[in-house]
Amino acid sequence: MIGMVAATAAGRRGCERLAAAWGPARSRLYVGPVRQCVESAFEECDHVVAFLATGATVRLLAPLLAAKETDPGVVTVDEAHRYAVALLGGHAGGANALAEEVAAVLGAEPVVTTATDAVSMTALDTLPYPAEGEVAAVTRALLDGDTVQLRAEPQWPLPPLPAEPWRTPGTAAEHREQEHEQEQEQEQGRPPLVWLTDETRDPHPGQDTVFVRPPSLVVGVGASRGAPAAEVLALVRGALAEAGLAGKSVTALATVDAKASEEGIVAAAAHLGVELRTYPAQELARVAVPNPSRAPLEAVGTPSVAEAAALLAAGGATAELVVPKRKSAMATAAVARRRPRGRLAVVGLGPGARDLLTPRAAAELRAAAVVVGLDQYVAQIRDLLRPGTRVLESGLGAEEERARTAVAEARAGHAVALVGSGDAGVYAMASPALAEAADDIDVVGVPGVTAALAAAAVLGAPLGHDHVSISLSDLHTPWEVIERRVRAAAESDLVVTFYNPRSRGRDWQLPKALAVLAEHRGPLTPVGVVHAASRPDERAEVTTLAALDVATVDMVTVVTVGNSATRIVAGRMVTPRGYRWQR
Ligand code: SAH
């Protein structure tokens, strides 16, 4: 809930605008004496927006501050609604994000002063996984550009960090090199370390260490009726502690359906702040486990509850049992580890203009530790990448290698973005990449504005009725196939957009394709030629089938040929939708 406080009429108008945008389910207006409003909002809400001077807000809040982890995020807005200031709780309290939101609604400028945000660096307290340890000291080292090491065992997808990968020495030479480095470190002190692991390790004395806990563990539990929550909890905690496993890496408790409302288990899950997942007994009975037994078979119909449920919830066949079943008087517990899953985002960058790159694409680029793409596309977005992003760019023609590299990096557990211009699924990298990818990685697609749409918006409304895109590149598709499709489009009177229409070495295909279309539509059929849509050198022309000069067409161009109903109206290409009121 976002609590809103105002002291003046202008402030109250601001609150009303925010309330209109957010609705009563998300926001609440506090009315009355300002001090009381601020105190109540701070007490009762997750976020506070105060239309007050920062000074006044600081004075009112000072006595209320408790801890960064629990205090609400606070944003202040000035009387003229020019600035939305993230005053308190930038990360943990969500004030930085809220300032952006408030600014978007009010047309104000967000003011964010958190150091990592100001330099667009990934903050250790905003990783997708919990971080514990010397967060402030290691963050400072990252910001100062000091050497920080990143040790990932194993790798889980993380956003980029300007850190040096930890190397496990393999060859004798590497051993010697590392020994030498360690001697140096003994003199100079060890560099701060970010350590991604679900194991509870002791930091090296004197080395600032942040432990990042991947979502890798599931605890399977069984319990007799009436088993107390304290007993279940103690058993779970004991199992983790003895095996040296971090509680923050536990994502779920798992058990059999029959125990879905067993109080001790439900309360233990709630206490640990994790979800409770349950499975039918028959499903659990099919899981191979090291310690089956008769008691659960008789009670609930499966020879294993704790081990089988832990393994199932941790991914089944790919899961590893790290703590076999252990028992207390009324409960059982076992711990399984999930295999990490890398993440491949296939991101369309749009036709070129920055404001045609979607916010979702920008967010995926910031979240990716590895960006793979054609060098000229990477150049288009390099400024959006966060410090520490590993960029793997290659030149034209290396499609297969790019697809392989992206998938291999995701398989190694990284957060990868494979980028392409326009939409990355249209004559681009999505299909070769996904043809390579097995189901051991997560894949997300971010659509982009494809060239045909960017060009259509420049030309008018040429795609108002049924249309196709056809690539005239016969590098990977035999010309006969292309020609057959052009002919089919011609016969069915579809509007056609040609991609890859003409290059220096491929100059006869476009005239040939236009000739095929001309067999079925008149010489005055409108044709739109758009070069570099949305880019600084954009050039567009609306002409006709008969008048088109193919010499104006190159590889950064799309050519859209109207159908028999397409007309030129006020210089714009218009293909009627077919509404009867509009003959
Ligand atoms: N994935 C891209 C298409 C890649 S094929 C997309 O969805 O847009 C490359 C072809 O796209 C080029 O030969 C050209 O025909 C077309 N193209 C890409 N960007 C363009 C732009 N900004 N303006 C005009 N045509 C463009």
From TrEMBL:
<feature type="domain" description="Cobalamin synthesis G N-terminal">
    <location>
        <begin position="37"/>
        <end position="117"/>
    </location>
</feature>
<keyword id="KW-0489">Methyltransferase</keyword>
<dbReference type="GO" id="GO:0009236">
    <property type="term" value="P:cobalamin biosynthetic process"/>
</dbReference>
<dbReference type="GO" id="GO:0008168">
    <property type="term" value="F:methyltransferase activity"/>
</dbReference>
<feature type="compositionally biased region" description="Basic and acidic residues">
    <location>
        <begin position="173"/>
        <end position="183"/>
    </location>
</feature>
<keyword id="KW-0808">Transferase</keyword>
<dbReference type="InterPro" id="IPR014777">
    <property type="entry name" value="4pyrrole_Mease_sub1"/>
</dbReference>
<dbReference type="Pfam" id="PF00590">
    <property type="entry name" value="TP_methylase"/>
</dbReference>
<dbReference type="InterPro" id="IPR035996">
    <property type="entry name" value="4pyrrol_Methylase_sf"/>
</dbReference>
<feature type="domain" description="Tetrapyrrole methylase">
    <location>
        <begin position="344"/>
        <end position="548"/>
    </location>
</feature>
<dbReference type="GO" id="GO:0016787">
    <property type="term" value="F:hydrolase activity"/>
</dbReference>
<dbReference type="Pfam" id="PF11760">
    <property type="entry name" value="CbiG_N"/>
</dbReference>
<feature type="region of interest" description="Disordered">
    <location>
        <begin position="153"/>
        <end position="192"/>
    </location>
</feature>
<dbReference type="InterPro" id="IPR038029">
    <property type="entry name" value="GbiG_N_sf"/>
</dbReference>
<keyword id="KW-0169">Cobalamin biosynthesis</keyword>
<keyword id="KW-0378">Hydrolase</keyword>
<dbReference type="InterPro" id="IPR002750">
    <property type="entry name" value="CobE/GbiG_C"/>
</dbReference>
<dbReference type="InterPro" id="IPR014776">
    <property type="entry name" value="4pyrrole_Mease_sub2"/>
</dbReference>
<dbReference type="InterPro" id="IPR051810">
    <property type="entry name" value="Precorrin_MeTrfase"/>
</dbReference>
<dbReference type="InterPro" id="IPR021744">
    <property type="entry name" value="CbiG_N"/>
</dbReference>
<feature type="domain" description="CobE/GbiG C-terminal">
    <location>
        <begin position="217"/>
        <end position="336"/>
    </location>
</feature>
<dbReference type="InterPro" id="IPR036518">
    <property type="entry name" value="CobE/GbiG_C_sf"/>
</dbReference>
<dbReference type="Pfam" id="PF01890">
    <property type="entry name" value="CbiG_C"/>
</dbReference>
<dbReference type="InterPro" id="IPR000878">
    <property type="entry name" value="4pyrrol_Mease"/>
</dbReference>
<keyword id="KW-0949">S-adenosyl-L-methionine</keyword>
<comment type="pathway">
    <text>Cofactor biosynthesis; adenosylcobalamin biosynthesis.</text>
</comment>
<dbReference type="InterPro" id="IPR006363">
    <property type="entry name" value="Cbl_synth_CobJ/CibH_dom"/>
</dbReference>
<dbReference type="GO" id="GO:0032259">
    <property type="term" value="P:methylation"/>
</dbReference>
<protein>
    <submittedName>
        <fullName>Cobalt-precorrin 5A hydrolase / precorrin-3B C17-methyltransferase</fullName>
    </submittedName>
</protein>
